[in-house]
Each structure stands twice: as structure tokens, then as C-alpha cells.
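Researcher: Quick one. two chains, 231 residues in total.
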Amino acid sequence: MFEIRLGDKGEIVCEGRLDASNAAKAQAFLDALAAPEVVDMARLEYISSAGLGVLLRTQKRLLQSGGGLRLVNANRHIRDIFRYSGFDRIFQIDDGI
Amino acid sequence: MISKRFQRSFDALDQVFGFTRRFYECEGVPDAERLVFDFCVEEIFTNFVKYNRGNLQDIELALERSGDRVQMSLTDFDVEPYDISRAPAVDISLPLAKREPGGLGLQLVRRLVDELTYDYTNRQSRITVTKNLR
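Model:
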């Protein structure tokens, strides 16, 4: 199960498991937003390299306009994956919104 | 050891994870390790799917716990040899502008497990990962 939507504060809320079977859904949602900023991962249990690709493509798109994603509330597994991927160098990763 | 074959499709991942979940519950695999194992299984499974798209054969997943070690093997049938365990490394120190999606999954698998082996016999590619439970 994976869900992605806009939260009450305009943040992007991800929930469930972002794997290869639903990466296209996540990419389509993010591509439809002109300037996404905050991704709340409090309810995101799991991410694979397919999910990392979604985030990376979005971050590269935003780079051209001077923007960028801020990833918040990621669990330990996801933080480990970010660190091993070098994503902690190319994303702002915070504990809370 | 338990094993099961799955359709060669990203859409099979839900069934794959259902299978691993039942294994974790039966074998008492700690929660903290389950996401790591699922990550490894997904990365290898989806690589088999991506790089042998014309193949109609299912992919086999075998799981075994022996003491504090868990071993997971994925087998791709009727394929040419391609040792994905030797895939080139991604430079994770590159700045955003030079990073490209792809190639990261298996690198992370190597980082997460204690042992990764590749075997090619009788047109079957088998990747086996072993991890000690902490």
C-alpha cells in the first residue's frame, strides 16, 4: 500500500511503502506540482531505490528553479538508506515540519 | 527453507512481500531487520525483471534462517549470464547536478548484507544474500 497526497499545510504526505510497483504513481504526483517543498515521511514505512529515483528526479527538476525538497520525519530505515545513497548530501533532511 | 515462484513483474511485489512477511513471522525475524531484507529482495527481483524483459519465466525466491543468519536466494531461469553483483559503483559523493537515477539499488544491497554471491549454472542466475541478525 502506498499513498501520496497534499497535507493541510501544503506539505506532501507519503504513507506506506514506496517501491517499484508504485514509483510511477509518486513520480506523476510530484511532476504535477510546480514547486513541491516539504515531504512528510512520518507514515512512510519503506523506500527502495525506485523511490530514491523519484526523489532524485524531482530534486534535479527543482534545482533548475533554485528550489528543492525538504524531507522530514523519516524513520531509521529510510535515513539509513539516504545516508548510504549520499542523499543526505543532496537533500535537506529534518526531524519535523 | 521455503521457496516460491513469482510472476516477472513489478506488480508481483505485493505478493513477494506477503511471502517474506510470513517467513519473518514464522522465524521470528526482528522488526528492525525486516525492512532491510525486503529492500534486498526487491532490488534483486526488480533487476531480474528489468534486464530480462523478454523472459516469460517466473522468478524464484528462497528464504532460510539458520541460527542468527538469514539467507535469501533469488533465481532467474533461462537467462544469459549477467553478474549483477559486479555492477559498477555509483559515486554517491557527486553533486546533485551530476547524479542520475539508477544503479544504486544493488550497491545498497552490498552495503546492507554480510555476504552476496552470484552463481550461473544451466542458464540459471542465482543471487544469494546472507545477513547476520543483530
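Chain A has one domain: 2-94.
Researcher: Thanks, that's what I needed.
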